[in-house]
Structure to design on (309 residues):
């Protein structure tokens, strides 16, 4: 009986069955693992973005309320009371101004979004009828749960800036000359006894706000130390500081820091009575005083880092 040779590239029913089996169990496990890892990073990135957005929204809302309060006090000539923004807690503040435009100021309480707060002393800003504050520059910092920080300044003139970002006028401006004999009387006198003191309210307006409250300690390790306990560095990597940490117990020293500072290394092993060095630099233009905590085996040592120009 004659048999017909099957071509070598012919597809048999068994081949069709094999091709329809799909992924193997190993391939499915690998695919699910990769998808899980990608999803985890996506969730973390999304959460960080939400936290940053909450922080930025809170800072901008605070700045806007300060500007509105200032303009409202000017519009009403501070009558019957000055407009103000007063913090009642690290996360809430009261805004007193004429919200309805009726001439009668009321007070509304505003709460920062989750994870956002001011540190150090609670700010209190009041604007007089000229939109000026009664004291020198009010400077305070706002931080987020992720360690982001922004510095808000309210000057004696009532100007509000965030992280000292001030717009610079770059356009050419043409000034016209003015003749004192045309419409301006040199003998004009403004009557009244209330004069604003134009003397400088703050002899030194360059000092940054105090940093967060110092926490930690080690009553059982009095020989633990961080030297120096406070130091200044220049902003945006302009200079660095070396912190020497001495521990009385053998173990690992880890670092807790705000997001705008770099500390290298972030952890070191130390032997009992030994000393290890850490380097601190600034990675942006935010100027203020920040706390860096060195967690030794039996104590927490806080060093205040002041970022300057």
């Amino acid at each position: 009986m004659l048999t017909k040779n099957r071509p070598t590239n012919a597809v048999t029913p068994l081949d069709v069955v094999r091709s329809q089996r799909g992924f193997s169990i190993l391939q499915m496990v690998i695919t699910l693992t990769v998808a899980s890892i990608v999803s985890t990073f996506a969730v973390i990135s999304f959460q960080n973005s939400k936290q940053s957005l909450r922080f930025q929204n809170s800072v901008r809302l605070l700045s806007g309320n300060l500007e509105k309060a200032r303009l409202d006090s000017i519009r009403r000539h501070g009558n019957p009371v000055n407009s103000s923004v007063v913090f009642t807690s690290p996360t809430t503040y009261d805004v007193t101004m004429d919200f309805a435009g009726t001439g009668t100021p009321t007070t509304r309480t505003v709460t920062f979004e989750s994870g956002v707060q001011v540190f150090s002393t609670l700010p209190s800003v009041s604007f007089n009828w000229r939109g000026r504050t009664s004291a020198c520059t009010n400077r305070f910092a706002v931080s987020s749960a992720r360690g982001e920080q922004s510095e808000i300044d309210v000057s004696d003139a009532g100007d509000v800036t965030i992280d000292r970002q001030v717009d610079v006028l770059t356009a050419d401006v043409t000034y016209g000359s003015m003749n004192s004999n045309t419409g301006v009387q040199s003998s004009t006198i403004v009557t009244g006894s209330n004069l604003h003191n134009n003397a400088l309210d703050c002899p030194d307006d360059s000092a940054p706000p105090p940093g967060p409250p110092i926490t930690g300690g080690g009553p059982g390790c009095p020989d633990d130390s961080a030297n120096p306990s406070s130091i200044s560095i220049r902003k945006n990597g302009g200079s660095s500081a070396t912190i020497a940490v001495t521990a009385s117990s053998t173990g690992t020293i880890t670092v807790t820091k705000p997001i705008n500072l770099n500390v290298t290394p972030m952890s070191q092993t130390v032997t009992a009575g030994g000393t290890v060095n850490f380097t601190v630099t600034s990675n942006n233009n935010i100027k203020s005083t920040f706390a860096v905590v060195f967690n030794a085996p039996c104590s927490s040592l806080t060093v205040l880092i002041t970022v300057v120009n």
User: Anything to note?
Assistant: Confidence is low (pLDDT under 50) at residues 166-171, 194-201, 211-219. The helical segments are 13-19, 25-76. The radius of gyration is 31 Å.
